[in-house]
Amino acid sequence: MMRKKVAVKKSRVSKPRVKKQITVMIGELVKPLVTQKIDAGTELADFLKANNIEWSSSVRVNGGTESKDYKLADGDIITTIGSVRGGM
């Protein structure tokens, strides 16, 4: 009698994926920079929303303008000018 070979798959237990964290700094005019750890791949718009900052032309990343879908990188510096009120 001939025996059939049967392949048995070993189940692998997968480890939960841990998102890589990056460090960015955020500052507002006349306020010190604050360091934050965020998930790698975070888009600028999501970061601003999480920090209660409205998207405007005063938002800069490393001194320049970026689109809302810009993916923040380790070491980026986000600066903004808060709402300016004044008049004559």
Write the topology of this structure.
Blueprint (H helix, E strand, L loop, with lengths): L20 E8 L5 E6 L4 H7 L9 E2 L15 E4 L8
Please tell me about this protein's structure.
8% of the residues lie in helices and 23% in strands. It is built from one helix and four strands, in the order ββαββ. A four-stranded mixed β-sheet has the order 2-1-4-3, with no helix packed on it. A hairpin with a 5-residue loop joins strand 1 and strand 2 (34-39). The longest helix has 7 residues, at 44-50. The radius of gyration is 23 Å and the shape is rod-shaped. The mean pLDDT is 85.
Q: How many helices does DSSP assign? A: 1
Spell out the CATH superfamily of one domain. Answer: Beta-grasp domain
Low-confidence stretches: none
Shape: rod-shaped
Q: Provide the CATH top-level class of one domain.
A: Alpha Beta
Percentage of β-strand residues: 15-25%
Sequence of secondary-structure elements: EEHEE
Which class do the helix and strand fractions yield? mainly beta
How many strand units?
4
The biggest sheet, with number of strands, parallel, antiparallel or mixed sense and barrel status, is: 4 strands, mixed
Label the CATH architecture of one domain.
Roll
Whole-number radius of gyration?
A: 23 Å
Helix content: under 10%
Distance between the termini: 102 Å
CATH topology annotation of one domain: Ubiquitin-like (UB roll)
* Arithmetic mean pLDDT: 85
- The strands making up the biggest β-sheet line up spatially as 2-1-4-3
